[in-house]
Amino acid sequence: VTVSPVDVRVELGERSYAIRIGSGLLDDRALFGQLGAGTACAIVTNETVAPLYAERLAASLRSQFGHIEIVVLPDGEVHKDWPALQRVFSALLESKCDRSVIVFALGGGVIGDLAGFAAACYMRGVRYVQVPTTLLAQVDSAVGGKTAINHALGKNMIGAFHQPMLVVADIDTLQTLPKRELVAGLAEVIKYGAIADDGFLDWIDSHMGELLSFDPLALAHAVRRSCEIKAAIVAADERESGVRATLNFGHTFGHAIETGLGHGAWLHGEAVGCGMVMAADLSVRLDLLPRAHADRITKIVARAGLPVKAPALGAERYLELMRVDKKADGGQLRFVVLDGPGQALLRVVEPGRVVETLEATSELA
Ligand SMILES: NC(=O)c1ccc[n+]([C@@H]2O[C@H](COP(=O)([O-])OP(=O)(O)OC[C@H]3O[C@@H](n4cnc5c(N)ncnc54)[C@H](O)[C@@H]3O)[C@@H](O)[C@H]2O)c1
Ligand SMILES: [Zn+2]
What we know:
Number of strands: 11
Largest sheet: 7 strands, mixed
Bound molecules: nicotinamide-adenine-dinucleotide, zinc ion
Helix content: 40-55%
Distance between the termini: 48 Å
Low-confidence stretches: none
Radius of gyration: 20 Å
Mean pLDDT: 96
């Protein structure tokens, strides 16, 4: 099955760009040809993705660029760090890339965030193209211009807003993804339905079988609708001073799970899946959402194969992990909650209500 390409636009004035979604895009020389010719480009990727896709991308770029520098980093979130970033800068400098270089981020969200940040910094900012190869990266991290590396004291703490010039989501690349990674990406897809489009949530529910069996048409639709929703939110609020925060639905609980269990125990998407179940329950307790709708979200998250019961970290530990700032008063608890199907808003919530949700949704110790 080949999926004909579609473009989703991210409208940001002079920083606008297209997200091209379809099959066979890695080999689409005409698509990359639109970027224009140049003296050099760099492909930043990792040890896992390079043997699968780097040569194909390079072949599509070869007639256009005098030099193609391929930077292969070690795989893993732990390598979204300063030493890996330094390796990118060294490779660019050693191959004498100037400000006209175009950086291609070929991989999942880790590579996208790091290569994007490298592009934001190198010679005070150069152009880059996102070529996301995980479902999470295609529906989320490659779109919107947030780039970062991690610091020992916090995830994504060192970064910049830097929009790509193009996003190329070749859905064929998802075929080699481990199932667990595909499922983790589905959590973010479900998120878009929950916060912005109840009809899409229905579609996800009725196409879960196809999605879980890597059906290209179903995946292409999921990527497209997710990108449309994210693009509209980013266009309305590029720097997250308002509505963009609703993209964090499920993430306050999710981050607490990730940190509480130690990073890497659950994948980010798994924690977000469970976090959405918790945030939906909280929305019911705040009288914003009918119980039936929260139950529907729980059912969809469970059908995706994502966890719906939170680990028993203890209510106090959860609260401590979720407080916004660590001031003397303990800091506020702020959540994205649902105030109807396909509608989300940010709320400060009393600890008592949060504890009720924790008691109702965690595994009993
Ligand atoms: N910038 C943003 O707005 C934003 C949003 C969400 C997440 N993120 C970031 O994204 C990162 C997570 O991204 P991720 O879930 O893609 O993880 P990842 O980049 O670690 O990729 C997951 C795994 O899949 C492998 N892989 C990638 N493509 C593959 C393919 N086609 N076939 C087989 N294996 C493949 C990777 O090498 C890795 O082992 C986190 O660092 C997170 O902070 C950023
Ligand atoms: Zn997320």
